[in-house]
Every structure is written in structure tokens, then in C-alpha cells.
Amino acid sequence: MSQMLERLQQEKIVAIFRFIEDQYADQAAQALLDGGISLMEITMNTDGATTMISRWREKFGDKAGIGAGTVLDLDMAKEAVAAGSQFLIAPNLDESVVDYGLKTGVPVWPGVMTPTEIVRAWKAGAELVKVFPMASLGLKYLTEIRAPLNNIPMLASGGVDLDNIAEYFKAGACGVGMGSKLVNMDWVRSGRYDLLTERARQFVEAASVK
What does the UniProt keyword field contain (predicted)? Predict the structure, then answer.
């Protein structure tokens, strides 16, 4: 088990930064750290993603775990790792990316939906799979696939909110990925980083409920 997976199992939440402008990025990330969320991914379809990843690695050090999201193929994976990504997350399964992660020691958490894809990713060497899109699949789906596949750690991405986050963990997720519900871009652009910090605290508290 990688250090990042251990961290995820302890902290339970990965914050997803998608399309955030560089001028707001550092303060937004600090706001989440202040609220208790330290695992963060910047999606590779965000302008300047690799620049932000490199800067955050230097700026936050061990306080944060910084990864790349929307890593669709091997070229993107190489760019992200060169920038300092500590983990790679994708909406899809590309076995060449998983293999690259194994060779470089950078955890790859590929996106899957069906039981066949989940097992395929696991056999390819993925230590964890991202079940996506959970907002459409629903919690019942997660509960059902966890029954026969309970030995494979699953990160649930999509549909998570304050009123249901605990249900995701009861259904068997070891962690959740959260974007706009956590990184509210209206708050970011208006400088209300205090609201980001408070929202982060609320989600951390909700995720810790047994």
C-alpha cells in the first residue's frame, strides 16, 4: 500500500481543482488545508496544471498530498509526474498509465464503472480504483459492487454532499473525490476563502462520523 493510499484511508477526502485560475489557486489550496483537507488533485485539463502542481509541492511540502487528475493517457502521466505529482487519478482505465505508475512508484487510481473494469484495473496493478460517475450510478450501485469486490479499495467520485457523505463510507468507499461542492469557484473568485475553510471543516467532520 502506498503512502498516498494510507493517507487517503485516514483523511477520506480528495479535493478536486478543475479550471481554477492560477491567480486564485494558492489561496484556495491554503484555505482547504486550514480546514483540514490536505489531499488535492489539479485536473490536467486546467490551464497551467503542471505549473501549479510544481509550485504546490514546493509551497506546501509534506503538509499536502498533491496529485494530478483527468490523466487520460501515458503522455499526460509523464507530464504530471515530471511536475511532481504524488498520485495520478483518471476518469478512465489505461493500463499503460497503471504500468508507468508501478515503474515510477507513483500511485495511479484509474476510473472504472463496471465490475469487469474494476477487476481489470486491479489485475493491471492499480491499488485503488475510482468508481465514476457516482452521481449517476448512485449509492446502491456502490453497495452492490462492494459485496463481491470488497477486497479492492474504491474511491467514489461524484454526487457527494454534506448530507450523504457518511453514506458513501457506509456503502464501502474508502474515500471520496469532491469538486465544486468543496471548491466553490464563486467563493474563490470573490475572495471568500474563509467560506472554503469552513466548508472543508464541515466535510471533514461529516466524513469522520462512524
Answer: Carbohydrate metabolism, Lyase
- Report, as residue numbers or ranges, the catalytic residues: 41, 130
The domain limits of the chain are: 3-126+177-202
Task: Measure the CA–CA gap between 180 and 161, rounded to whole angstroms.
Answer: 10
Q: How far is CA 161 from CA 129, 131, 151, in A?
A: 21, 16, 26
**Rounded CA Rg of the chain:** 16
CA–CA distance, 2 with 105 (Å, rounded to integer): 9
Domain spanning 3-126+177-202: CATH 3.40.50.11030: no
Query: Where does residue 37 rank: exposed (0-12), middle (13-18), buried (19+ CB within 10 A)?
Result: buried
Compute how many other C-beta atoms are within 10 angstroms of the C-beta atom of residue 172. Answer: 20
176 close to 14: Cβ distance less than 8 angstroms:
yes
**Residue-wise pLDDT tens digits, 144-176:** 999 999 999 999 999 999 999 999 999 999 999
- The residue whose grid cell reads 471548491 is 183
